[in-house]
């Protein structure tokens, strides 16, 4: 166990910061090979009982020496000779001391070599190979792992997060090497309050929870969905600077990508001999909710200040659990609220790209394909935005389609969550639409849309072969269906007839194969002036004649780290709609340069430019650099500050650490952003001493 020496504790009372770039000495209670081989230790994660702070002086105590230290994913060959003497490591490592920079360069060389050696291999093979080499680094040196991730976020985010994380989840039982996080099942009912104390950390800042029932667009993956919380928490560390000791993994961490799992309905997994979960169907109804209730109560009994992010629950439970807990605990659902925030930021950016004032958002015609938790979350937040602009009597032009077509109030057994967006008969009569209409005719009167892609939604395929509806001509076509290719040729061509001079196409489903369309087809068929955004990363499109079709990545990674960090630093009792809207509007305003808007850059840049010589002006322009994904910590700082200020304004903030509400209230916008930045953890080695 870690403990703080008196000198460190004294400094703890004088400081406010959660993280440090200054090396603080650590006292360990293990020696020799115990240090090098203990799987629960990381040299820089110096403290279990209090946050990691910036210390002018201070000593943190750990209990390992000898072989125990060598077992830990810490510094490899980086122990200096004096430290080897203190910890009994002399002779247990090669004599040369390898610096952090040398370790960094060696890993990057290995990674580039892997890229070269896998050229020409299938994408899935290359992606999993890259994930494995990063995962092995994580196992042996967590400090170096996060430094590599932070410095190369553009290259590595698609590996540890979307889209590769979907492939990892599909194969997780076969890829499993060591446990990460905690697992709760139906067999643990009545034991969760005691189980939660099996986690060795006394402090938790951030928890990501899933039940594995709807992983990305891949469906029910059961226990294998644990890959999603692991990837999300890696992004919390990289983007938000959450100290990993206060999240998950290792003895000295203070949280876990918790996984409240209750079985699976995926027959393929149930028959897989390698599957690591229970071989039983999922619980339903009150039996299901009682398990989640027990877990949530146990978490907050031990860690009452932790922020909990619900992730990848199927729609019926996503809305149920959000309504059930959001007023009681500091929690949010990333699929409903995070996706909605990113989409709203993109929608507001689209209005700017169209050359219209933001208030014109109320007049935008938006067709949303997919009525799951994400699609409904987007419409709910968009409706709130319209209401703020036009008043409570707002009548937005939203059209919602699910597997059975257009949702109207005539539908039987309509999902209560979809009811506010169901169209009444008189609203669509003039358009020639009716209940169950398929993907709307968005261009000409004679556009028949073949919807074979919809077959994945239901067993009864009759009635979905073709459909014809009157003109809608939407400004925005937004997909959250999870059905790859559903925006097929006729749909994309019809978008040319949009009422907007610059229509938008958002293909937001993940992973890559589930995207509603690819950007090449969108720019080719819908026109070169469209605004395009996708959930997974795609390369920009070479349109010829020196023109480039910019591909935005409308991914939650720009928002959820800031939501979590802002809620944490404010000490918010719960996360309100106002806090979430503040996050979305902050992200929308982040692209502040009109030049970026003219280039249809509504989200920070992620794509590699295909023809760099044709883009020398774009690639070197002063406005370009602040908007890259590599600036994600700056983005998160501003989003987090916006969330924090909203919590203070709503009187939801209680302060965090030794920064009270009054101090937060008196901070200017710039001071709040700086406060958030100063509380971001950064990976460095700290010296170790043994007690």
Automatic annotation (TrEMBL):
Keywords: Metal-binding, Oxidoreductase. Divalent metal cations. Prefers magnesium or manganese. It comes from Solanum commersonii (Commerson's wild potato). This is Malic enzyme. One of its GO terms (cellular component) is mitochondrion. The keyword Metal-binding applies. GO terms for molecular function: malate dehydrogenase (decarboxylating) (NAD+) activity; metal ion binding; NAD binding. Its cofactor is Mg(2+); Mn(2+). Belongs to the malic enzymes family. InterPro entries: Aminoacid_DH-like_N_sf, Malic_enzyme_CS, Malic_N_dom, Malic_N_dom_sf, Malic_NAD-bd, Malic_OxRdtase, NAD(P)-bd_dom_sf. (S)-malate binds at residues 214, 510, 555. Residues 336-648 form the Malic enzyme NAD-binding domain. The active site is at residues 161, 232. Residues 138-326 form the Malic enzyme N-terminal domain. A divalent metal cation binds at residues 311-312, 335. GO terms for biological process: malate metabolic process.
